[in-house]
Amino acid sequence: MANNPDYSSTVGVVVVTYTGQDLALRCLKALGRTSRPDVQVILVDNGSPGRTGDLVAERFPDVHVIRLDENRGYTGGVNAGLREALCRGLDYVAVLNDDAEVVDGRWLDAGIDALNENRSAGVLGWTMVQHDQAAGRELTTALLSSPEAQPTEHLNGFALLFPAALLKAIGIFDETYFVYADEDDLLARIRACGLSMLKCSVPLVHLGEATVGTGSAWAAGMQMRNSLRCALKHDGWPAFGRRVLRYLDVAVNPWPLDYRPADDAHRRIRLASGRAGGAVLLARAVWWNLRHARETRRIATTEHALAARVRAQGFRAPDRLAAPARYRSKPCERHLPEAVS
Predict the structure, then answer these.
(1) Residue 124: which of 80, 160, 92 has the closest Cα?
(2) Which of 70, 97, 149, 333 has the highest Cβ tally under 10 A?
(3) Strand pairing partners for 126?
């Protein structure tokens, strides 16, 4: 796939960091292994205390640093980087967690070639290898193999590649999520356009949760709140109800029927604060969604209309759609493009 890569497509990489100075520096150093020339790297310092942005600017002068004055969550941070990337007229843009490490220089070449060859795909992710497995057979095999990409029903949001024109047309990450379930939301909006998802065999190493710990009660509460919102947004009240029952089982039941330890979300919820604490967190998540249900459904209606427009135009990556350059100003709609006449 990437033996003779096509360098005619331009690409940017957005990295977001918050209180992860060492991770960010390690991530950017590893990006230097990328074989593709002229990659435009944008780092967003998401209101971190200290000198993260300054250190990056000193050590990586070719990296464009955006310094935010407050922590806007992952969604607010990555959107700041995406807006900068989309204004540059790039063909593709990748988003990369600061706890992701490039180990194979072919990663971008393989991803872009796959999207160019599979023109009905709207997003691509890479194979995630956990840090404690990075010296194992799985990574060694992947590094020695020829890159390939296959259709998939699930992608991990720690590293994603998008056609820039598609993001201009349907919008970027919904900032109401702040963190967790935001990638599920955007991927659902891409699938609503009639576009498929691809997973590339080239591996990236995942160093762990950089922003919040697995057992954080705040993280568990955000996970449930946002997953419920995503279900309501894309599948309506029946899906919302089923998700509530599932989290009730995972968070409260001493002998859960549906608990999957390998699932990051399940583990985050189960380890948060015991069964009583889990019940309180779930109740708060449900109540928040009930209070914001009308706004959630209104935004969903707008997003569905944007997806229908893309379907009607017959988007095929990397086509350039007629798309707005500006985004809406209302806080809950800042991820959505202004209407195109």
Answers:
(1) 160
(2) 97
(3) 200
- Nearest in space to 67 (alpha carbons), one of 11, 20, 17: 17
Under DSSP, the state recorded for 327 is B
Structure tokens at 224: 């449930």
Going by DSSP bridges, is the β-strand pair 100-102/196-206 parallel, antiparallel, or unpaired?
Answer: antiparallel
Exposed/middle/buried for residue 59 (C-beta within 10 Å: 0-12, 13-18, 19+): exposed
- pLDDT tens, position by position, 201-231: 999 998 875 445 555 888 889 999 999 999 9
Integer-rounded Cα radius of gyration of the chain: 20
Distance CA 273, CA 209 (A): 18
pTM of the model: 0.91
With H, G, I as helix, E, B as strand and everything else as coil, classify residue 194: coil
Please check the confidence at residue 281 and state whether its pLDDT lies above 70. Answer: yes
| CB-based contact 272:216 (threshold 8 Å) | yes
Identify the CA nearest to 94 among candidates 196, 192, 23, 167. 167
Gap between the Cα atoms of 11 and 161, Å rounded: 9
Return the pLDDT at 303: 95
> For residues 249 and 238, what is the distance between their CA atoms, to the nearest angstrom?
17
142 or 304, which is more confident: 304
Q: Which residues contact 287 (CB under 8 A, 6 or more apart)?
A: none
User: In the chain, what is the greatest distance between 2 CA atoms, to the nearest angstrom?
Assistant: 57
Element (H, E) at 328: none
Other C-beta atoms lying within 10 Å of the C-beta of residue 3: 10
Question: Rounded distance, CA 136 to CA 147, Å?
Answer: 18
3-state secondary structure of 8: coil
Identify the weakest region by mean pLDDT among 48-52, 97-101, 137-141, 153-157.
137-141
Answer whether 63's CB lies under 8 Å from 43's CB.
Answer: yes
